[in-house]
Specification:
This protein is an alpha/beta fold. The protein has nine helices and eight strands.
């Protein structure tokens, strides 16, 4: 696969397997992979550390605005992990941004318009020179409405919750499956119903149900799709 470098937008529900597909694809063909959920998570972690949430998850918006202006979120490629991992300044936060405290609050942060504006700006400025595959909720609808390929990734709630549960318990986190099911459902609802850039399938996105295919089948399918697109662009 060579020649035209594409922009591929991968949107969909939480824990639908979109990052795994995007990461595997990027590693295989040398595209840049950006997990935009990690950016919303990094802002959430920083807001938590600065005590910007009250007990009802209301946010101190003035302080958040300042925090978002100053925060330095970036990614560095890790050979061991085979993917880019997330830093705030010099601190590696990849593991901490996935914990349940952050997962429970990230949808509130992601609903704040000025947070979205700042992160969307950063996302649009990320390198496209080597081909880009970016995953999130609004990549095909807002960040790159002219993306060459748009995927909308989904899977049954239980399939997604079990995936997240395995991920967290493998890391030694003490969580129950029910807690994860509740968190996944709550996030689906908040992501789909927020006013600012809600999770929507772009009109021209292709739906992929990851519950039906193995990661290898998904990767082969995407490689073929990209090949076809690249050939037709020649
Ligand atoms: O993909 P994820 O579960 O790590 O995303 C974390 C949260 O960030 C999710 O609840 C929705 C939000 N998000 C968003 O609103 N827009 C994006 N482009 C990516 C994530």
């Amino acid at each position: 696969m060579e020649n035209k470098k594409l922009v591929i937008a991968v949107d969909g529900y939480s824990s639908s397997g979109k990052s795994t597909l995007a990461k595997d694809f990027a590693a295989k063909v040398g595209y840049v992979f950006v997990d935009t959920g990690a950016m919303y998570r990094a802002v959430t972690l920083s807001a938590l550390r600065n005590n910007l949430f009250d007990a009802k998850n209301n946010i101190e918006l003035e302080k958040l605005e300042k925090l978002v202006e100053e925060i330095d979120i970036h990614f560095k490629y890790s050979k061991e992990e085979g993917r880019s991992i997330t830093y705030i300044g010099d601190e590696l936060v990849e593991s901490e941004i996935r914990n349940i405290e952050v997962s429970d609050r990230v949808s509130y942060i992601a609903a704040v318009p000025f947070v979205r504006r700042k992160l969307v700006d950063m996302q649009r400025n990320m390198s496209k020179e080597s081909g880009l595959i970016m995953d999130g909720r609004d990549i095909g609808t807002v960040v790159f409405p002219n993306a060459d390929i748009k995927l909308f990734v989904t899977a049954d709630v239980m399939v997604r919750a079990q995936r997240r549960y395995r991920e967290l318990t493998n890391k030694g986190e003490n969580v129950s499956l029910q807690e994860i099911v509740d968190n996944v459902k709550k996030r689906d609802h908040l992501d789909e119903t927020r006013e600012e850039s809600p999770l929507r399938k772009a009109k021209d996105a292709i739906v992929l149900d990851t519950g039906k295919y193995s990661p290898k089948e998904q990767l082969d399918w995407l490689m073929k799709l990209v090949d076809e697109k690249t050939q037709s662009a020649k």
